[in-house]
Automatic annotation (TrEMBL):
Species this chain originates from: Streptomyces luteolifulvus
InterPro entries cross-referenced by the UniProt entry: ADH-like_C, Gfo/Idh/MocA-like_OxRdtase_N, GroES-like_sf, NAD(P)-bd_dom_sf
Entry keywords, A to Z: Metal-binding, Oxidoreductase, Zinc
Domain Gfo/Idh/MocA-like oxidoreductase N-terminal per the UniProt entry, residue ranges: 411-531
PANTHER family the record matches: D-GULOSIDE 3-DEHYDROGENASE, NAD-DEPENDENT ALCOHOL DEHYDROGENASE
Domain of life: Bacteria
Cofactors required: Zn(2+)
Family label: Belongs to the zinc-containing alcohol dehydrogenase family.
Gene3D superfamilies assigned: Dihydrodipicolinate Reductase, domain 2 (3.30.360.10), Medium-chain alcohol dehydrogenases, catalytic domain (3.90.180.10), NAD(P)-binding Rossmann-like Domain (3.40.50.720)
Alcohol dehydrogenase-like C-terminal domain residues: 182-300
Protein's UniProt name: Zinc-binding dehydrogenase
């Protein structure tokens, strides 16, 4: 098998072929799927190995002291031979991984061959294809958790033990100094515990990431903004705890901790930073300085780690293994999100190059994972499928909107005149000032003639090319069956038309790519998809009343879709896509608009006996949206109900008839019955304005693409039975 090793004397890194470890009693043999590089601990070790002998001595005074003791006991020659022999040997790297159990040793009955486990230990969870792991240093991965996320288990346990040492309580304010890998996880654990967090790091990108993940404020250690944030959150008293997650030789972290900590607060050292404590500052506040020892109780105890002797839970509630299992549980329940921390995933064969790029600064990363070949790696990939969210590319400058003669009407052409067009769109356009219905195009002559007679189109035709070539037409509405939307949109964009296409924009990733290729080729990005609910006046007012939010939100959207009549073309899934592919974009767009972000992952499940769906969307700031799309509900129940919860506030929408917001003040919309307004009229008004003025489209194209990709990911998730990551192209 292959393993990453380093020669501490020469600094050489290599991937060596080494023997497969035996499966000893009391443990399991694990084939690695993903292992995590600790960009703090491991890079420090790699950097030290590249130093001169004097530099190594300066960086490890503790080891120098041991050498001097050996000299006094054994003499210089013997000590020299011993030290050089140890330095000139290959040592392993790594301590956090996820893999598949390949063999079970005697005495193990809690896992079986084929189980996915997270493993810990700098002697047992190495960057190697196979590792023997004793019982108390692995934990079974919960169903539904992606292997690459489970590979963070050890790092999560380190952060968790540090938080436990701080003993935070609900309502506390904490300061996290150092927003690297450990610091980012500490921020999330504290936020999940009801603690308000201020982060400190000289890297602005890491500060922004921590704020996305739950920190109330972050900034440079030298900036006044950090002290101001602490003063505001604590009424000037100082933070309850400081967590030192920084490294390096500066004494600035411990000095900052003393300055911003409250009287009798706690300072917890998790990382490995300089600890030259300013005595007066710590004495005057009687600060409680604590150390956090790695993953938790059991660490460095051979009876616990190697012999599998557990501590009774009544005496030691949280051990290494219990911390590991707890962190995995937080991951699978979405209380902690490590996906934003993944800066790079490298193939295991590229390990040496990856370390070198990290050391040289070419690869700037919070967390880097190694992905392993073979069945374990393939299984890992299957657990976490991904759907690409294509980038929107526009040629420099783009194609300007054609100039329109002042006060001339906006001329519209309709491709398709079915039920939705004639009932929900054309009635709003037919009597609108400044709009002229130019041409209607259908595949059958009679339907075109009916639309012309009813809504006053100047012309009716079956010739699409003639309409697309008509320079007097300002915008084209594509309101046909789902399977034709992408191709008709592509043609209209290439013809230079502004396009309004009913949902869905596309039924496949290839169709979506084709639309975006037309945008790139023509420079024409004047596109709107009929996601009308974000324009609904009642929902707009409720969102305004709800106001801004600071923390993650939880959104629930129940869609009582009902059964389709026999013979409906919506049932032609082979050509027209599933019902959710056709309609689901409405609800994803509404959720994303309310949460002011695009989703980063999608998880979908469905019973085998009907078309009901549960779709869970996750967003960059930790917010979630659950869409229950059901066909088996009561016909008399409202079709759409929505609840948004965040920051002690609740927004409720009842089928676009009533809305309410509960917070410091309660707001309820008018009790007088009104017709349901799902936003079509306001959406069309915004679209016509954009066409008339040449201004921005009502919804950015990037948002339309993200919603379409998320809708497509639902089908991929159902097929794969696992969360689907939405990977945005760069």
């Amino acid at each position: 098998m292959k393993q990453v090793v380093q020669n501490y004397k020469s600094g050489e890194l290599a991937v060596l072929d080494v023997p497969v470890p035996g499966c000893k009693p009391g443990g399991v043999l694990v084939r690695t799927a993903y292992s995590l590089i600790s960009t703090g601990t491991e890079l420090m070790k790699v950097s030290e190995a590249g130093m001169s002998m004097l530099g190594k001595a300066r960086s490890r005074p503790d080891q120098v002291a041991k050498v001097m003791q050996s000299v006094a006991t054994n003499g210089v020659p013997a000590t020299y031979r011993k030290v050089m022999g140890k330095l000139d040997s290959y040592t392993p790297l790594g301590y956090s991984l996820c893999g598949v159990v390949e063999q079970v040793g005697t005495g193990i009955d809690d896992v079986k061959v084929g189980d996915l486990v997270a493993c810990a230990g700098n002697e047992h969870a190495l960057h190697a294809e196979l590792n023997w792991v004793p019982k108390n240093l692995y934990a079974r991965v919960p169903d539904g958790l992606a292997p690459r996320h489970a590979a963070f288990g050890t790092v999560g346990s380190i952060a968790m033990q540090g938080v436990r040492r701080g003993e935070p309580q609900l309502g506390d304010v904490a300061l996290v100094i150092g927003l690297g890998l450990i610091g980012q996880v500490v921020v999330q654990l504290l936020a999940a515990s009801g603690v308000r967090v201020v982060g400190v790091d000289p890297d602005p990108a890491r500060c922004k990431l921590a704020e996305r993940l739950g920190a109330a404020a972050c900034g440079d250690p030298a900036s006044a903004a950090v002290e101001a944030a602490v003063a505001e959150l604590t009424d000037g008293h100082g933070v309850d705890q400081v967590y030192l997650a920084a490294g390096g030789g500066s004494n600035q972290p411990v000095e900052l901790a003393a300055r911003l900590c409250r009287d009798r607060g706690r300072v917890v050292d998790i990382g490995k930073c300089r600890l030259d404590l300013p005595w007066n500052a710590y004495y005057e506040k009687e600060l409680d300085v604590r150390f956090s020892r790695s993953y938790g109780p059991g660490r460095y105890d051979p009876e616990y780690e190697l012999e599998g002797r557990d501590y009774p839970i009544g005496y030691v509630r949280w051990t290494e293994r219990r911390n590991l299992a707890c962190f995995l549980d937080l991951l699978v329940r979405g209380r902690v999100d490590v996906e934003p921390l993944v800066s790079h995933i490298a193939d295991f064969d590229d390990a040496v190059d990856t370390y070198q790029r990290l050391k040289d600064g070419d690869l700037k990363a919070v967390a880097v994972l190694f992905r392993y070949p073979g069945p374990a790696g393939e299984a890992g990939e299957a657990e976490a499928p991904a759907v690409a969210v294509p980038a929107v590319k526009r040629p420099g400058g783009g194609v300007p909107t054609p100039a329109r003669v002042a006060k001339t009407p906006v001329r519209l052409a309709f491709v398709g005149a079915g039920n939705y067009a004639t009932s929900m769109l054309l009635p709003h356009l037919a009597q609108r000032d400044g709009v002229e219905l130019s041409t209607v195009v259908t595949t059958t002559a009679l339907s075109a003639a009916n639309a012309q007679r009813k809504f006053g189109f100047a012309e009716a035709t079956t010739d699409l090319d003639a309409v697309l070539g008509d320079k007097s037409v300002d915008a084209v509405f594509v309101v046909t069956r789902h399977s034709s939307h992408a191709e008709l949109t592509r043609k209209a964009l290439l013809a230079g038309k502004t396009v309004f296409v009913e949902k869905p924009l596309a039924l496949t990733e290839d169709e979506l790519a084709g639309v975006l290729a037309a945008v790139e080729e023509s420079g024409n990005d004047r596109l709107q998809v009929g996601f009308n609910r974000r324009f609904a006046p009642l929902l707009q007012e409720a969102r305004k009343r709800f106001g801004a939010r600071t923390g993650p939100a939880s959104l629930r959207y129940l869609v009582n879709a009902g059964r389709l009549q026999h013979g409906s073309w919506y049932l032609q899934q082979g050509t027209e896509g599933s019902r959710f592919e056709g309609e689901g974009g409405h609800f994803i767009d509404t959720a994303s608009w309310l949460l002011d972000a695009d989703p980063v992952s999608v998880y979908a499940v469905a019973p085998t006996s009907n078309e009901d769906l549960q779709v869970v969307l996750r967003y960059p700031d930790g917010s979630t949206a659950t869409i229950s799309y059901v066909t088996t509900g009561a016909a008399g129940f409202p079709k759409e109900t929505l609840d948004l919860v965040a920051d002690g506030k609740v927004l409720r929408l009842d089928d676009f008839v009533r809305a309410s917001v509960y917070g410091r003040k309660k707001w309820v919309s008018s009790r007088l019955p009104k017709a349901r307004d799902k936003g079509q009229n306001a959406e069309l008004a915004a679209f016509i304005k954009a066409v008339r003025t040449g201004g921005p489209m009502p919804v950015p194209l990037e948002s339309l693409v993200a919603t379409t990709s998320a809708t497509l990911a639902v089908q991929a998730g159902l097929a794969g039975g696992a969360p689907v990551t939405l990977e945005r192209a760069r």
